[in-house]
Design goal:
heterodimer, A: alpha/beta, eight-stranded mixed sheet, two-stranded antiparallel ribbon, B: alpha/beta, seven-stranded mixed sheet, 22 helices, nucleotide-binding (chain B), metal ion binding (chain B), Uba2 (chain B)
């Protein structure tokens, strides 16, 4: 809870003393091998600068770069800067940022806030749930948010959506454009922009601009494809998908190989999680899953098969589809060697009738959970959920399911 | 948009939102999106308990008819216990369903309270919010026993009921010591220098280490020909130097404790040169934007200042108060949004901390402690608002079998991040929603009526405008519209010992306490008792009847073992509360098997979680 600020003069003095007496005036360049260390070094000097002795009258005066050959430094010194660098990354939060984010900084700390303010999020497929999510991360102060959805705003989109006004409904603007102008008003410190086009058609390098990709209202095929694209990049790009069907919702998370720090009673432990891709996760044999696995998981897979086979848009369903869907259920359950009762008729019917309609309170809940998860993933603080989340207003449960092929019950 | 009958119910509903803070904003949006068309809002800031009686909603339009009656459901997004209790009572009186909520950081909860169907908000005892002197007293006792100050006591003193239930959060001991310094800086020093000087400074008396006698009284006065800097130095040397030396003189005090060291200004600042120069005087900032940090070029509120910097801020803030905000001196109260006030308190707390060997803290951290700032994240508020609307729709459809209280957790408990729990049925001996008489053990020979009014009627029963009767004799009535002679009479009564009132209150007396606004009446049986355990019964009186006093005491004396490890997460708290939960057919088994939470054989809504989130769970029954 009590974090030592990066610029603690005492700490630095301590390390400086340990590092064979800093000598001023020597060339900084000597001894620097890797680019990474150079940045590190520059940061170290910046820190030192800020902590130079205060002169009379209470004002600090820059003492000039503290220059000493890097090779002179014991490892502990560099290590401490490596740690400090994380805190020093980018600029300090501005006074405006500190004031605006005061309450949440008290929850997740300054470091997390700084990381958040440098992160880029891409959202493809806009609806009420995604609107809630966007609002949450924009308010939280994410660095940038890029919106993709070329569909024109329709009256239908007004439902469950607070980012669209009735005037927008006739504006012949795209959903992304309307969302963008509304979201900008939420927080002027966040860079919100529109990207035209269809995400699956972008090549891999496009993804490199982002730390987090969130998709919604797209087919299973596209989800798998985008998920795979995120995987193929050198940098780790977190992938999320979210769907809301009236009172039911599903979130999928792929953080690849994810390490985070978990705070225990006295110490901080590094935790490691390995996530499967969406494709890997849903290929887990149903018989291998724990008996208590939520039925919504199975129902959603049945609907995906149905929608794919009929070439429907996601959520383009009605109660009339039930007979065909029941056939698909039988096929799937037979294939998986499970009893059809695993996927109750009532639940399937409810999801079909709901179609793409969203229940606003459920949007708020899903958008809230997703927002928290994305913040966790960016900041590296807190246990992230692995790898499915379900909410159903009918029973009020918000359930985490870990569905990974390696997992055998 | 909700289908069919649900939509009808939603459209026809007249909803009252109480509180327009973090939850309120999210709630309003979600209500509007969900199709609600008639939404009334009362802002949190306008319903501070101090002005509850001035609120239109809370005034009775007709005898026995509260204005709350017109609403289909009341949704609370409040931040304090008193207002919650008040709204609970109004809802009970008007028989309007209440949905209650609260959040801290990533944690939150939503509960449903419908008269005749579920428990009311007050059926479970809510922890008393201690006053600072009580807190202080406990801290002192702990220190005398050589114990570290427990997490619990900090929570009790500083957190509201909801927060305490939710955020059993680890507070490092050293931080707690720092909290002392902040309390000292804010409630003693700041109040002394800038507040009402005539007011009793309770902490001053209590910190008996310091000789707070008359001789020191004048030290705090600024003499007419004294310049602000010398005044500041004089105050500095007095509180951090002289007072500490005085305290050190009493060797007994420090036998088993670490001795503080006296700090004098000359030892810290070799040269005191505040540039009374252009930069400073040109600063034409008014009011709360005046800042010692900006004069001293201390930019980052996250930085921990050196002792030297703290001393400079101390002197500079004091100087700025005297020169720029002279008119306010004598009437200032600490406000966390008052930059200069927080700067002063930060500096003073840090200098004191330094004297006692406690780590110093940043402006940012000190502000959080001094202002008792609630941790808040928008996402939790959004989730909670969604859950409130889901419950509101059930309430409007009178679908009481589906009512749930829901906990939003930071760490999943048995896979659940959002955990629904069946509401409990009303506590039959709840003094708020049932008519059970209470029992008060009190020393009628020594306790004054004012003690009773303060500690029991206001603090315990949460009444704001009480009226107290002994049989048919009215012995006290609160309100500002009383006749002068009547008011004078009550004033006299307040200062009388119970047994010496015109209609004496002794063992066997039944007092009737009423709050007309809250439409709440309580009968209290008085039982005389000579002695009270100073530690366990600090009030010097014990009220019982509607709650498990034993449990409450246990909370105070044995909290560590039952619910508060030093470092707990809510999930663990949930785990432990499971041990307290029990099947509904049982009445008093302590070590029941943990009820199965999720029954996966049922497809329907029967697979309910049968545990209670908050710690005090032992006396609950499942709602039928």
């Amino acid at each position: 809870m009590v974090t030592q600020p990066a610029s603690d003069p005492g700490l630095l003095a301590f390390y400086a003393a340990k590092s064979n007496q800093p000598r001023r005036g020597e060339a900084l360049k000597t001894g620097i091998k890797e680019e990474d260390d150079a940045t590190l070094w520059a940061n170290a000097c910046r820190v030192m600068d800020r902590c130079s002795e205060p002169c009379r009258g209470g004002k600090r005066e820059p003492a000039g770069l503290l220059c000493l050959p890097q090779s002179d430094l014991p490892n502990s010194f560099l290590f401490s800067f490596r740690r400090l660098r994380i805190e020093m990354e980018g600029e300090e939060l501005t006074a405006q940022q500190t004031a605006l984010y005061d309450r949440q900084i008290r929850v997740w700390g300054v470091d997390a806030q700084k990381r958040l303010s440098k992160a880029s999020v891409l959202v493809s497929g806009l609806n009420g749930t995604v609107a809630e999510f966007c609002k949450n991360i924009v308010l939280a102060g994410v660095g940038s948010l890029t919106l993709m959805d070329d569909r024109l705003v329709s009256k239908d989109a007004l439902h469950a959506n607070f980012l669209i006004t009735p005037d927008d409904a006739n504006s012949r603007r795209s959903l992304a454009e309307v969302y963008c102008s509304s979201l900008r008003e939420f927080n002027s410190m966040v860079h919100v922009s529109v990207e035209k086009g269809n995400l699956p058609q972008f090549d891999g390098s496009f993804y490199d601009k982002f730390d987090v990709v969130v998709v919604s209202s797209i087919s299973l095929k596209d989800k798998k494809f985008i998920n795979q694209k995120c995987r193929e990049r050198k940098k780790r790009i977190a992938f999320y998908s979210v769907e809301c069907r009236d009172s039911c919702g599903e979130i999928f998370v792929d953080l690849q190989n994810y390490t985070y720090s978990q705070k225990n009673s006295d110490s901080t432990v590094d935790c490691h999680l390995e996530y499967p891709t969406l494709e890997e996760a849903i290929s887990t044999p149903w018989r291998d899953l724990p008996r208590k696995t939520t039925k919504t998981y199975f129902a959603m897979r049945v609907l995906e098969c149905f929608e794919a086979s009929e070439n429907r848009n996601p959520g383009d369903t009605s109660g009339l589809d039930l007979p065909v869907v029941l056939i698909w259920r039988k096929k799937l359950c037979d294939l998986q060697h499970v009893n059809e009762s695993l996927v109750p008729d009532g639940l399937l019917d409810r999801l079909l009738v709901a179609g793409s309609r969203e229940h606003p309170p459920v949007c708020a809940i899903l958008g809230g959970i997703l927002g928290q998860e994305v913040i966790k993933a960016i900041s590296g603080k807190g246990d992230p959920l692995k790898n499915f989340f379900y909410f159903d207003a009918a029973d009020g449960k918000g359930i985490i399911e870990d569905i990974s092929p390696a997992l055998r019950s | 948009m909700a289908p069919g009958s649900q939509l009808e119910a939603v459209k026809a509903a007249k909803v009252l939102m109480v509180g327009a803070g973090g939850i309120g904003c999210e709630l309003l949006k979600t209500l509007a999106l969900s199709g609600f068309e008639d939404i009334h809002i009362i802002d949190m800031d306008t319903i501070e308990v101090s002005n509850l009686n001035r609120q239109f909603l809370f005034r009775q339009s007709h005898v026995g008819q509260s204005k709350a009656k017109q609403f289909s459901v009341v949704l609370n997004g409040l931040d304090n216990l008193d207002a919650r209790r008040h709204v609970n009572r109004l809802c009970l009186a008007a028989e309007v369903p209440l949905i209650e909520s609260g959040t801290t950081g990533f944690l939150g909860q939503v509960t449903v309270h419908v008269k005749g169907k579920t428990e009311c908000y007050e059926c479970q005892p809510k922890p008393t919010q201690w006053t600072l002197p009580q807190f202080w007293q406990h801290v002192k006792m702990d220190q005398e026993k050589g114990e570290d100050i427990s997490v619990r006591k900090f929570e009790v003193a500083n957190a509201g009921a909801w927060r305490r239930e939710l955020a059993l959060k680890a507070i490092p001991v050293l931080l707690l010591h720092f909290v002392h310094s902040v309390v000292w800086a804010k409630d003693l020093l700041f109040a002394k220098l800038f507040g009402d000087r005539n007011q009793d400074n309770d902490l001053n008396v209590r910190s008996s280490d310091v000789d707070g006698s008359k001789t020191t009284e004048n030290v705090f006065e600024l003499s007419p020909d004294e310049d602000p800097i010398s005044y500041g130095q004089r105050i500095y040397d007095h509180v951090f130097g002289y007072n500490i030396e005085l305290a050190l003189a009493n060797e007994e005090t420090w036998r088993n404790r670490r001795k503080p060291k006296a700090i004098h200004i000359k030892d810290v600042l070799s040269e005191i040169s505040f540039q009374q120069n252009g930069a400073l005087e040109n600063c034409t900032n008014e009011g709360t934007s005046i800042s010692a940090m900006s004069t001293l070029d201390l930019k980052n509120p996250q930085d921990v200042w050196s002792l030297e910097d703290n001393s400079k801020v101390f002197l500079e803030a004091l100087r700025l108060f005297i020169t720029k905000r002279e008119k306010e001196i004598g009437s200032l109260t600490f406000d966390k949004d008052d930059q200069l006030a927080v700067e002063f308190v930060t500096a003073a707390a840090n200098i004191r901390a330094s004297s006692f060997g406690i780590p110093m803290h940043s402006f940012f951290e000190t502000k959080g402690i001094a202002g008792n700032i609630v941790h808040a994240v928008a996402t939790t508020n959004a989730i909670i608002a969604g859950l409130i609307v889901i419950e509101a729709i059930k309430v409007l459809q009178n679908d009481f079998r589906s009512y749930r209280m829901t906990y939003c957790l930071e760490h999943p408990s048995k896979k659940l991040l959002l955990m629904p729990v069946e509401p409990f049925e009303a506590n039959k001996s709840c003094y708020v929603c049932s008519e059970t008489p209470l029992l008060l053990e009190i020393n009628t020979q020594t306790s004054k009526l004012c003690d009773f009014v303060e500690k029991i009627v206001r603090n315990k029963l949460g009444m704001n405008l009480p009226l107290i009767m002994n049989g048919s004799n009215l012995i006290f009535e609160a309100g500002d519209d009383l006749e002068e002679d009547v008011a004078a009479n009550y004033m006299q009564n307040l200062n009388k010992v119970l047994a010496e009132l015109p209609s004496p209150v002794t063992s066997g007396t039944v007092l009737t306490v009423e709050d007309l606004q809250q439409e709440l009446t309580c009968n209290i049986n008085i039982k005389h008792r000579e002695e009270f355990d100073e530690e366990k019964e600090p009030d010097g009186m014990v009220l019982s009847g509607w709650l498990e006093r034993a449990k409450d005491d246990q909370l105070l004396s044995n909290g560590q073992s039952t619910l508060l490890g030093t470092k707990r997460k809510i999930s663990e708290a949930q785990e432990s509360s499971e041990n307290l939960a029990r099947p509904f057919s049982e009445t008093n088994a302590a070590n029941q098997e943990i009820p199965q939470q999720i029954d996966d054989n049922n497809d329907d809504d029967e697979d309910m979680v049968m545990l209670d989130g908050p710690p005090e769970a032992s006396k609950k029954k499942r709602f039928k």
